[in-house]
Amino acid sequence: MNLVTIDEIHAAAKRVAGVALRTPLLPQLWASPAKLWLKPENLQQIGAFKVRGAYNAIAALDEKTREKGVVAYSSGNHAQAVAFAAKQFGVPAVIVVPDVTPRIKVEATASHGAEVVEVPIGQRESAAHAIAEERGLTLIPPFDHRNVIAGQGTAGLEIAEDLPDVEVVLIPISGGGLASGIGTAIRALAPNAKIFGVEPELAADTAEGLKAGHRVDWPVEKRARTIADGLRSQPSELTFAHLQVVLDGMLTVTEEEIREAVRVLARRAGLIAEPSGAVSTAAFLFHADQLPDGKTVAVVSGGNLDPSALGELLG
Amino acid sequence: MNLVTIDEIHAAAKRVAGVALRTPLLPQLWASPAKLWLKPENLQQIGAFKVRGAYNAIAALDEKTREKGVVAYSSGNHAQAVAFAAKQFGVPAVIVVPDVTPRIKVEATASHGAEVVEVPIGQRESAAHAIAEERGLTLIPPFDHRNVIAGQGTAGLEIAEDLPDVEVVLIPISGGGLASGIGTAIRALAPNAKIFGVEPELAADTAEGLKAGHRVDWPVEKRARTIADGLRSQPSELTFAHLQVVLDGMLTVTEEEIREAVRVLARRAGLIAEPSGAVSTAAFLFHADQLPDGKTVAVVSGGNLDPSALGELLG
């Protein structure tokens, strides 16, 4: 399969500059003598890394296509990312969400000026395709797209620039777009680093699939058990092919480890992470025995938490 | 009075580079259409801006003096900053704290390798001076020192670099070192910006003093009423003279406004701020009518919260 190249990621970096925040690497004193840096993507304006890929994909469209508008199906961070990115170009965005989506997320998406279409939960994808065709909109998928992968990879460029001798990189895995992109960048620019994907035990389809040598399908009910609601997707053929090439291994973390990592990030790092964003830190905290001992970057992928979850997790 | 110059701040920036984190400006979507950027000094390794001034003051000592070691009196962020900075140079640090200091803060300071000396609360300053003389250590004051002010000013250099057309800067005021430093940098590099100090209503000695044209003394019991425990100090002659020159005005915020700002920073910005660090955001949220309408930077000065306070404030 034709994988995303470092040149595509460099091109993405030029596009997203000034829109996606160039997040710093945050050295963590409390993790001494081990060396831990956090890559706080929760500080992006929309609260997650997703803006990198969504903006890059929309920016890469030819102007005529882009003017007609874009559509996405997601109830999570990708929805906000596409809505936000479309707004930067002043083009229409339609976001298809399940009709069970919490009001707060619908409103967050609508607040970027997007049209939110609510459909029964099983019809998200087909509805999005139908709307795309009807209205001539371009579908921006959450991870199964090389410009989305290249966009997410810009976070990897920044890691390699800021810490060229990085030895371990920990990345949350859901659909695999973030790990595909960051992994590609790190392989090219810091080839000595070991790259690990991290999943909840309760949604560890990628760990199982990589071991088996092919994608495996976990039923959605099974994946839905984890508190890490951003990590319930599964890789596509395209992202799985990247993960097979760029990852050195997979780690899985328990629900209690995820909750504790959210608490540690708040108490020690000053960051609000959503459970999905905290799994990489959980891996560092609780599975260091499976990791090389060296300069480690944990990607904190997002921080969008309901206020009630904030109280429950930190109270 | 001979005020700190922009050249001294530039010199400080060279010294602190690589030790103090160069914090990004975080644009805040939720504050749209107003324009708000946060300067998240809570993300410094010690959880507060204080590392800038402490490190600069120690770095500026001649080597022989520095080798003997340093001493500071503080139970808060300055204690950790001096202990951390001394450790970077491998020189001894003694931190004098009141014997009522919570264990967690004593341990945080000791964890940087500093010797912690506990004395009755009224004797902190005299004990620190006595130890300095006895052992030949250099006292690093929390704000009443031009190298400390110049170090804190490096945050202002970064603001002016990242947002050259900044129009409003909001800075918490306690002893006034941070506002003196940032204010001096902004005056020099972004002279059109208006600079405001922010205090809790319950510790508004500086607002009163600036109006009166001279320092006023609020009894410590009165200042101790505010939840913003980092804002209970009062300016020295040196910092007050800076504040008279660099500030365009003062704002005061209520205890409930401070608490709400801590919640907003957690929910909307992904940041854990301590109450003292949140007063500038509180001023933006609740006193915009007293501010020019324009690109605004709120300095989030620190994030060191007890876990119990975290639960109480966010739960």
What's the gist of this structure?
Two copies of one chain form a homodimer. Chain A has 315 residues and is α/β, with parallel strands linked by helices.
Word description of this protein:
2 copies of one chain form a homodimer. With 315 residues, chain A is an alpha/beta fold. Chain A folds into 2 domains: 6-48 and 145-314, Rossmann fold (3-Layer(aba) Sandwich); 52-139, Rossmann fold (3-Layer(aba) Sandwich), CATH 3.40.50. The first copy, chain A, contains 14 helices and 10 strands. In chain A, helix 5 (103-110) links the parallel strand 4 (93-98) and strand 5. Chain A is globular. The A-B interface holds A 21-24, 26-29, 40, 42-43, 45-47, 84, 266-267, 269-273, 303, 305, 307, 310-311, 314-315 and B 21-24, 26-29, 40, 42-43, 45-47, 84, 263, 266-267, 269-273, 303, 305, 307, 310-311, 314-315. Chains A, B: Keywords: Lyase, Pyridoxal phosphate. Chains A, B: Its EC number is 4.3.1.19. Chains A, B: It is an enzyme of class 4 (lyase).
Based on secondary structure, the structural category of chain A is alpha/beta
What's the number of helices of chain A? 14
Number of strands of chain A: 10
Uncertain regions spanning at least 5 consecutive residues of chain A: none
Radius of gyration of chain A: 18 Å
CATH architecture identity of the largest domain in chain A: 3-Layer(aba) Sandwich
| Oligomeric composition of the shown chains | homodimer
Domain Tryptophan synthase beta chain-like PALP (chains A, B): 22-302
Catalytic activity (chains A, B): L-threonine = 2-oxobutanoate + NH4(+)
Pfam family, one (chains A, B): PALP
Protein name (chains A, B): threonine ammonia-lyase
